[in-house]
From TrEMBL:
Keywords: Coiled coil, Kinase, Membrane, Phosphoprotein, Transferase, Transmembrane, Transmembrane helix, Two-component regulatory system
Example of a GO MF term: phosphorelay sensor kinase activity
Reaction catalysis annotation: ATP + protein L-histidine = ADP + protein N-phospho-L-histidine
Xref: Pfam families: HATPase_c, HisKA, HisKA_7TM, PAS_8
Enzyme class at the top of the EC tree: transferase
EC identifiers of the protein: 2.7.13.3
Coiled-coil regions listed in the entry: 331-358
Gene3D superfamilies named among the record's database cross-references: 1.10.287.130, Histidine kinase-like ATPase, C-terminal domain, PAS domain
Protein name: histidine kinase
Membrane-spanning residues: 12-30, 42-58, 78-96, 103-121, 154-173, 185-207, 213-232
Domain Histidine kinase: 358-551
Length: 559
């Protein structure tokens, strides 16, 4: 029995017991979240290291050789599992799932299993262990089993597995960006403890040569791995996707883990978002990506199509998603321009058809009336003034139609350039240029500057004022007001004339529709000008019983 009063024995027992408790406790904690890649292996590694430490404490503290041998034999399969668990963790951590098939796992485990069988049966052949006698080494009394050829082979095999795992993690260290090199470095650093402890156990450095340092070293290694997968963040989704989310790709790539948190951003995504978004929830950072809304989506001034690809391992386990954002801003701008051009062409075709209809019908009627009046004046022997007056009225009607047609031809053209226009100034300027007779203008407008094509805004207001004067009479009162909402403004131009019947309000903006004998083009031009600006226009109930028109969606410029 080892001397329990000796300080080295007490220190080593405390270290083994502490390592055992820590290993079992952290192993249990890790087991509760073992679904994440690599955590199952870390849990088993910690539990195994903890059991080895406790069993070794029994071997030191026991005064019964049989108990020592039982503890030694019990720890044998646990010791054999340690390098296998390390290698399996390295495969899971680095995303080498093609190496985690059943056949390859069996192939890795088989040599360790054969060594366990040989160690258990060494009393008959001494291939793994040559002795089971207790020997004293200073204050320590331990079983010194000796090293047989099978154990030499197993030690070499175990070191080969640890070195293979190191190479896998080192490859990961080289492949990952700087953001993940801390995790891989910690994993590499922790692996030095069992390697050096094994070397110290095998090689006699002149102090307590029979002591084994590996059990506590395994627990320390397990704590390092625990820190990697829990404190520093496992690489799961980011590592698996690294080969496809290449650093040089120009499109933003976002890697999201199975827990919905952002694990990686390539440089293009970092320029679009903030690098601090790594570790944040996708649903919080950018909910439209997670919800799978309509595409393309708009981020700032750019538009993106979103391609979402799942990340799964060979067993079908969900390990996250890769979001690839393709910049389609130019494509969408071209598509919008094309649609605008098509709409403009369609409006122009409609306008040409209406133009032809006006020319063939509306213009032909006054032309025929003028021709008839002139012919009557030519052949009449009496007073020709009445016939010539009718001809003059017909010519005036044709002049109005021609003026309306010219305005109609340009009213619906797309507005290419917008100017800053004082709304109050535009209203008063237009009124001053019209023959208003006894009509009255009341203006109650905020001092606002709007964005518009100034000439066409004047034309729109002119047509509404003329409509009020023509239908409301010489003494009509025109009321102009506006209402602002956020950065948009609605302009209302109302009069106290006879108004528009409710069943006619939806038709007054159609070409050729007139409720008072006009050309039927004035309000149609108003509608075209509003549409060309992207505004809305409608006939609404006003403050009086007269007509009231509201032009909405006018952009306001804050001074």
């Amino acid at each position: 029995m080892s001397d329990p009063g000796a300080l080295p024995v007490q220190a080593y027992l405390i270290a083994c017991l502490l390592a055992g408790v820590i290993g079992l406790w952290l192993g249990r904690v890790t087991w509760t979240e073992r679904d994440e890649p690599g955590r199952l292996e870390v849990s088993l590694y910690l539990v195994s290291g903890g059991l080895l430490s406790l069993l070794y404490a029994i071997r030191i503290a026991s005064d019964d050789p049989t108990t020592m041998v039982v503890a030694l034999q019990t720890s044998t399969p646990i010791l054999a599992a340690m390098p296998v668990l390390w290698l399996l963790f390295a495969f899971a951590y680095a995303g080498w799932d093609e190496w985690r098939t059943e056949y390859r796992i069996v192939a890795v485990v088989t040599p360790a299993f054969m060594w366990v069988l040989l160690a258990w049966s060494s009393r008959t052949h001494e291939l793994a262990r040559r002795s089971f006698e207790a020997v004293s080494d200073g204050p320590f009394t331990l079983i010194e089993p000796g090293i047989g050829p099978a154990t030499v082979a197993f030690v070499l095999y175990a070191y080969a597995l640890y070195l293979a795992g190191l190479l896998v993690v080192f490859d990961l260290y080289q492949r990952t960006g700087n953001r993940y090199r801390l995790q891989t470095f910690v994993a590499l650093l922790g692996t030095l403890f069992p390697l050096l402890a094994g070397l110290a156990t095998i090689v006699d450095f002149g102090s307590y040569a029979t002591l084994e340092w590996a059990p506590a070293a395994f627990v320390i290694h397990g704590v390092f791995l625990y820190g990697v997968v829990f404190w520093l963040g496992t690489l799961d989704a980011a590592v698996v996707a690294r080969d496809t989310a290449v650093e040089v790709i120009q499109d933003p790539v976002i890697v999201v883990g199975s827990d919905g948190r952002i694990r990686d951003l390539n440089p293009a995504a970092e320029r679009l978002f903030s690098p601090d978004a790594v570790g944040e929830s996708l649903s919080t950072t950018f909910p439209r990506l997670e919800s799978g809304g309509d595409h393309p989506i708009t981020i700032g001034s750019r538009q993106f199509d979103v391609q979402v690809d799942p990340i799964t391992d060979p067993r079908g386990t969900d390990r996250g998603h890769v979001y690839l954002l393709r910049d389609v801003t130019v494509r969408e701008q071209r598509q919008t321009a094309l649609e605008r051009r098509e709409a403009q062409l369609e409006r122009q075709n409609d306008r040409l058809e209406e133009f032809a209809g006006v020319v063939s019908h509306d213009l032909r009627n006054p032309l025929a009336a003028a021709t008839a009046a002139v012919e009557l004046a030519r052949v009449s022997d009496g007073d020709r003034d009445d016939a010539l007056e009718r001809a003059a009225d017909a010519h005036e009607r044709m002049d109005e139609l021609i003026e309306g047609l010219l305005s109609l031809a340009t009213a619906g053209k797309a507005v290419d350039a917008l100017e800053r226009v004082s709304l109050d100034g535009a209203i008063r300027t237009v009124w001053s240029r019209l023959e208003t007779g006894s009509a009255t203008l009341t203006v109650d407008l905020p001092n606002e500057t709007v964005l518009a094509d100034e000439e066409r805004l004047h034309q729109l207001v002119t047509n509404l004022f003329r409509n009020a004067i023509e239908h409301g009479g010489d003494d009509v009162t025109v009321i102009v007001t506006a209402e602002r909402s956020a950065d948009r403004l609605s302009l209302r131009i109302c009069d106290d004339g006879p108004g528009i019947p409710d069943d006619e309000r939806s038709r007054v903006f159609e070409r050729g529709i007139s409720l008072g004998g006009g050309t039927g083009l004035g309000l149609a031009i108003v509608g075209d000008i509003a549409e060309a600006h992207g505004w809305s226009v409608e006939s609404i109930d006003g403050p009086t019983e007269g007509a009231c028109f509201e032009i909405g969606g006018i952009d306001v410029v804050d001074e």
